[in-house]
Amino acid sequence: MLTTLDRSRPAPLAYSPAIAAETAPLYARVARVVPQIEWPVHAPYIAEINRLKREMNAVILAHNYQTPEIFNCVADVVGDSLTLAREGAKTTAGTIVMAGVHFMAETAKILSPEKTVLIPDARAGCSLAESITAADIRLLRQRYPGVPIVAYVNTSADVKAEVDICCTSANAVEIVESLGVPEVICLPDEYLAQYVATKTKVKIITWHGHCEVHERFTGEEIRRLREGQDNLIVLAHPECPQDVLAEADYVGSTAGMSDYVGIHHPKRVVLITECSMSDNVAVQYPEVEFLRPCNLCPHMKRITLPKILAALQTRTTEVLVDPDIALRARRSVERMLAVGRR
Questions:
Q1: Which of 23, 38, 155, 232 supports an S-S bond with 43, CB 3.0-4.6 Å?
Q2: pTM score, whole prediction
Q3: What pLDDT is recorded for position 292?
Q4: Which of 233, 236, 177 is nearest to 202 (CA)?
């Protein structure tokens, strides 16, 4: 058999005793969720990323859905989209690397226009962000004149520029009620909007957008998980369908789910959200048993350690937002952040 070397890909970094010693404390942190056999592959990238980001005055923001070797071993700021939006705006670093998806990188650029914002893979998108456009918002304005529009942060900069205010799954109800009106358009996630409607007297007009990860869960699946599992606690993200939320013991954002585990320390728990979330929470709470019905986000999984290193080395792919769009989108995001400071 003739084997042809692929010279378009750089050779993997070498694992050495020095790197093993340097990264040993990091592996001790993630040993429960990263198999030992995988560490010699991850460790050289982790060591080089951590060295290079210090040299470049760069920070890495990682969403809760990133794999544990990224989330726990190279990230400087971790959390849900609201946390990343807030902390990204506060950082004094000149370069932000977004270990997340494209709309998150756009939000970081909107809030920090003077900083260089990089995303390790420009193809890391979002089914929700792709479900609605700025033109759709303008048509909604015509159909519902005078009705405020609340956009989930899982939207493009173009959409954020057209709406009145943004929200996250953590603060959606608070944002809707802060407007002081009887009727609100809440988009693009239909299931999040339906959940908000159960928590407020405000009439909610929805949009037919869904998260390709959360919409795959079903109420029947949750009932099957409970079979033979005494005292199983089910925590679900509000992007899930209503029949899933009806089966849950708690509904909340990724930060809310993590906080629930930290406060209540359930013996056995299942997080109905993207698969890597369970690994990252398990690192914090080793005494808790996690069931893992695994739905992966294909976009989040485009972000890898080699791609993060390449982004730092080559300063690509840089995320840019048209200044006019960025200015208008920033107003929507800052209005959201201002509600949280009241």
A1: 23
A2: 0.92
A3: 87
A4: 177
